[in-house]
Amino acid sequence: MSFTPYDWNQSIQTRTEYIEERLRDGSPVVGISIPDGILMVSVHRAERKVYEIYDRLVFGAVGNQSDIETVRNASIDFAHREGFQRSPDDVTAHRLVGSVLSPALKKAFGDPFNAPFVFRGLFAELGERQETDLFFALGFDGEFKRETRYSVAAGSLEAENRMIDLLHSSVDQAKDRTSAVRLALEAWATGKIHARRRGGFGSKARDEEEEEVEILTAAHVLREEIAEGTVEAGLLERNTPREIKFRLLRADELQPVLAEYR
Amino acid sequence: MRPGDFSELIGGLSGEGGRVLDAPVSHSERAAELDTHGTTVIAVKYRDGVLNVGDRRATANMAVMFDRAEKVLPLDDFTLIAISGSFARAVEIVRYLKHSFRYYARRELQEMSLDGKVSEVSRAIANNLPMALQGIGAFIPIVSAYDPRTNEGRIFFYDGMGARFETAEFGAAGSGSERIRGAFDYIIRTKKPFREMSLDEALQECLILLDIAADLDAATGGFAKVLPVAKAITRDGIVDIPAEQMRDIVAGIHPREDAGLARPVA
Fold first, then answer.
1. Torsion angle defined by CA atoms of residues A163, A167, A170 and A172, in that order, rounded to the nearest 10 degrees
2. pLDDT attached to residue A120
3. Nearest 10 degrees: Cα torsion A220, A225, A228, A229
4. Per-residue pLDDT averaged across A14-38, rounded?
5. Which has the closest alpha carbon to B43: B165, B163, B137, B125?
6. Tell me: the pLDDT tens digits for A142-163?
7. Which of A86, A208, B31, B223 has the maximal Cβ count within 10 Å?
8. How far apart are CA B80 and CA B97, in angstroms?
């Protein structure tokens, strides 16, 4: 028995369907760059979603928890080995995603005899100034894109696009931590809604009425999810005297936003 | 496989994977000339935590290599290391320790315990022993930390083989430290324990001690030319003592020339 190009195509297609089906229900992750630093927000039921990778790198993902762990650990390993043997300045998201993770994911995805990664991840790198903050969105097939200002990882591409639309039109409102958490949660809820509605709406043009309904729905989803889950907001702080720039925002810092949904 | 173990990641604490080296070198008279040494560092427990003060001099044999060496370094937000001895090894091991603590915390999603941290320092010193026995690369640190469990500052000092001792009041290391060791006890007995002192009081005593060490030890820099480095750890983390604050205290310390210690015998 031999493995033909046809089999390969077939396997890629089946794998893609399998992965996307399993990603769909994942809780999205939203990254926003603000003057204070980089904020990465999600809502979790069980495991943590936002992780510190290195001094200036933060990571969040949707997918199979053990796949997320594999990518997280590989990232931490690379960053620390490189940071120690060379310098922390040489540990960049670009090197991590482009040289280490992307090729490995691509290989796992294309290899029909191994389990592919059920994974869509977001890496953010804190710059000296807000203009130099960077995001890298990485897919299960190794494809990655570099973004600035904001980025997301969600259960479906449709959901990601809707979230990006919202962030694109509203990111200027996110000037401080509170307003950024508020916007991130709205984007998160948008992603959650659209991942559920498989196939999306069909029509690209949305009238104002529909927009309003969506916001209502987003608030509804948030109320529901905040009651049952935990909002997680990781901040990589730009100007801090502390050695460790990363921290999770405390409950009292999230309170002003969460109160709106309680 | 020890999860979260950084030394394993880099191929062993002294493995080829890391830059940490322990390949035995044959003993050479010239070795000491290559090895730059940091000299006197002091740690005392004061009212709100631990204060670390270090002079700025680094010497290689008789040469002053550098007069602005930083010998009090943060390992993380609640741990300071004050280094004496071989500068090259100490700085490398500080880099190792920082990565090691953080690697563990990031991988395991929990902080390494204080006990785990001070043991890791022991391990690094023990691993350095083959080099130290060749006559170069020996270094002795003092580790200070704020213990969130007991809500107090803690000070650990080490011997050359990595044995760890916890001290109740103070610790000192480096070439100048032997000269001033008794003075700590004198202060505690005649003035008051360091742990009852305010930051300024403790800082003043430490600066005077450093000045005495500089007088008695050629390798110690004191405060006359370049201000020492001083950092404190409290429940809120590490505080850099500003130069202003030190300058004010230094200005209040009586100059030593007035003491008129010794006159040449005519």
1. 170
2. 97
3. -160
4. 95
5. B165
6. 999 999 999 999 999 999 999 9
7. B223
8. 11
Average confidence (pLDDT) over B198-215: 95
C-alpha distances in angstroms, B217 versus B58, B175, B177?
A: 13, 7, 9
Q: Using a CB-CB distance cutoff of 8 angstroms, which residues of chain A are in contact with residue B95?
A: 84
Give the whole-angstrom CA distance, residue A204 versus residue A98. 32
Interchain proximity B107–A53, CB inside 8 Å? no
Q: What is the 3-state secondary structure (H, E, C) of B8-53?
A: HHCCCCCCCCCCCCCCCCCCCCCHHHHCCEECCEEEEEECCEEEEE
The string of pLDDT tens digits covering residues B62-80 is 888 888 899 999 999 999 9
Q: Which residue of B has its CA nearest to A240?
A: B77
pLDDT for the residue A9? 87
Do the Cβ atoms of A84 and B99 come within 8 Å?
yes
CATH class given for the domain over A27-256? alpha beta
Q: Are B210 and B228 in contact (CB under 8 A)?
A: yes
Residue spans per domain, chain A: 27-256
Which of B41, B37, B35 is closest to B173 using CA atoms? B41
What number is the ipTM of this complex? 0.90
Half-sphere exposure of B90 (CA within 13 A, CB side): 28
Q: Please state, as a whole number, how many other Cβ atoms lie within 10 Å of the Cβ of residue B242.
A: 10
Residues A127, A119 contacting (CB under 8 angstroms): no
Q: Any bridge partners for residue A115, and if so which?
A: none
B248's CB contacts (< 8 A; 6+ apart) are none
Which pTM was predicted?
Answer: 0.90
